[in-house]
Amino acid sequence: RNWPLTNTGEVRRLLAEYGLKPRKSLGQNFLVAAGVLDKILEAAEVEKDEVVIEIGPGVGALTRRLAEKGARVAAVEIDGRLIPLLKEVLGDLGDRVRLINADALKVDYGALLAEMGAGSFKVVANLPYYITSPFVAGFLEAGYRFERMVLMVQKEVADRMTAANGTESYGALSVLVAYHTEADVVWRVSRHCFYPPPAVDSAVVRLMRRPAPAVTVLQPELFFRIVRASFGRRRKMLPNALAGAVPGLDRETWVQIIESAGIDPRVRGETLTPDQFGLIADACVRLGY
Ligand code: SAM
């Protein structure tokens, strides 16, 4: 059997054969545009025998293409109803595809990668929208040594991931992504490329992991705590936003720390570059707080 899997009729028929309907609560919007799959594969630059982690294989369209390129794919799908269908669609690919019926937010990727003997690996996925931020943030914070991630995400999230300081989309996620990776938007994708179409447009982002973090700081944990607090109350001037972020440090102390970092304490956090957040975090340590 031939598996184009890239038009609505085909995907709908296949799901019907298994008595299934797409579940909105699981973000089941299946990609039905061959051209977009091509773009994802182009951005992924998969090499033969390389390990690729795919989150949410759905009906297996992207999974098939990755495996056909020679990748060894570990596909993590939460919806057990799709597993028999995926086994049929991917059956001829043998051990190039490993199906894991689990919640992608709970998988121990370290153990999985060790089992697969992965040196370098990539993450390629059309992510269910409701897990995008926790998945990406969790994966980055865990320090997995991926080479790149190529992800279909909601357009607004793509903007947040790639935003520069001073823009409306700039936030804690932008700083986290910039700290670990060099990120860019590869392709904007209309909602009509999916079955069923979601309520928003999407974009494919590429996150290339940096060999070392973009900002060298004395205490990364403190750096991220400052970043999160700054954006938690983003309309406030920085010392007000930071008051209480570190136990015992009041507004006046933050004014002193920010000034000693060479930054005007009247600014808002959303205007600061990751480097400037780094200067503040290090000033905090140097002043003995
Ligand atoms: N890869 C397919 C495609 O491109 O057409 C499907 C993508 S669809 C946007 C998201 C997929 O992620 C669905 O198959 C859904 O069941 C699955 N999913 C949702 N939540 C998940 C989770 N927490 N862990 C793993 N998979 C999940």
Automatic annotation (TrEMBL):
SUPFAM superfamilies: S-adenosyl-L-methionine-dependent methyltransferases
A GO-annotated cellular component: cytosol
The keyword Repressor is assigned to this record: no
CDD domains registered for this protein in UniProt: AdoMet_MTases
Enzyme Commission (EC) number: 2.1.1.182
A GO MF term: RNA binding
Residues of the Ribosomal RNA adenine methylase transferase N-terminal domain: 36-211
Subcellular location: Cytoplasm
EC class (word): transferase
The entry's keywords: Cytoplasm, Methyltransferase, RNA-binding, rRNA processing, S-adenosyl-L-methionine, Transferase
Pfam short name (any one): RrnaAD
Catalytic function, reaction form: adenosine(1518)/adenosine(1519) in 16S rRNA + 4 S-adenosyl-L-methionine = N(6)-dimethyladenosine(1518)/N(6)-dimethyladenosine(1519) in 16S rRNA + 4 S-adenosyl-L-homocysteine + 4 H(+)
Residue positions binding S-adenosyl-L-methionine: 29, 31, 56, 77, 103, 126
Sequence similarity: Belongs to the class I-like SAM-binding methyltransferase superfamily. rRNA adenine N(6)-methyltransferase family. RsmA subfamily.
Function: Specifically dimethylates two adjacent adenosines (A1518 and A1519) in the loop of a conserved hairpin near the 3'-end of 16S rRNA in the 30S particle. May play a critical role in biogenesis of 30S subunits.
Entry protein name: Ribosomal RNA small subunit methyltransferase A
Gene field: rsmA
